[in-house]
Design goal:
The protein has about 250 residues and is of the alpha/beta class. The protein folds into two domains: about 30-110 and about 210-245, Periplasmic binding protein-like II (D-Maltodextrin-Binding Protein, domain 2), CATH 3.40.190; about 115-205, D-Maltodextrin-Binding Protein, domain 2. The chain contains nine helices and 14 strands. Strands 1, 5, 6, 7, 8 and 14 form a six-stranded mixed β-sheet that branches. A hairpin with a 2-residue loop joins strand 3 and strand 4. It starts with a helix and ends in a 7-residue tail after the last helix. Mean pLDDT is about 90; it is low at about 1-20. It comes from Aquipseudomonas alcaligenes. Keywords: Signal. Belongs to the bacterial solute-binding protein 3 family. This is Amino acid ABC transporter substrate-binding protein, PAAT family. InterPro entries: Solute-binding_3/MltF_N.
Amino acid sequence: MAARCFRLCLAILLPLLCAPAATADEVYRIGAEDDWYPFTALRDGKVQGMSADLVRAAFAASNTRVELVPYPYSRCMELTRTGHLAACFNTSPDADIASEFRLPQEPLFSDDILLWARRDNARPVTNLQQLAGRKVAVTIGYEYGTPFDSLTSVERVAVRRDLNGFRMLAHERVAYTAAYRSIATALFAENPELAGQFVPVATLHRPQLFVSFSRHHPQAELLLNRFDSGMRALHRDGRYERIIEHWQIHDATP
């Protein structure tokens, strides 16, 4: 009987003893999108933006040291998927994302994904079937919601950055471009030649944006739990709202 109890205890404790242990001075590498301001971007040699501030604050609240490493979004997600990075943000999850990555309980924020047209040729799009045969600029690796992503009749024109999509639209190389409301607002402010040229003609999706954690990185589950714990702390003490207000992002609360 005693031997069976010993073996049972050993079977329970051994995985815990063999699991990678976190140390107080260890710094974990988290992938951050490098060109998605005002949420996350590499500016002046540092990862900056609203979601970057939220991620740093959440991990700090759980006493976890992290380094945000900038990558193009598609590269960031691939490095996370294969376990070379513990996590990457910002992600709008779909079924494929949910199956390939670990997703936390706590989202970062929400924003509207809009379909933009030239102001001089804008007509409301009330049914996505109206896009059949039309060219729409989309950023490589981005998710735009199942209704749009599942369309087979639209001609998607892949671009490296949202800015490139608006420039193609300005030169009438595409009929539309898809972009988040807050990203477009920031782009128009930083590129005055684009301001006033475009209007939204449809809302494609209003997703919650998440940090995606690897299913293959040895510390990913630990970091996911610490992130969730830290985000809950930010909500409890009001720091979450203060970060949102600092960046003046309209209606970003999930």
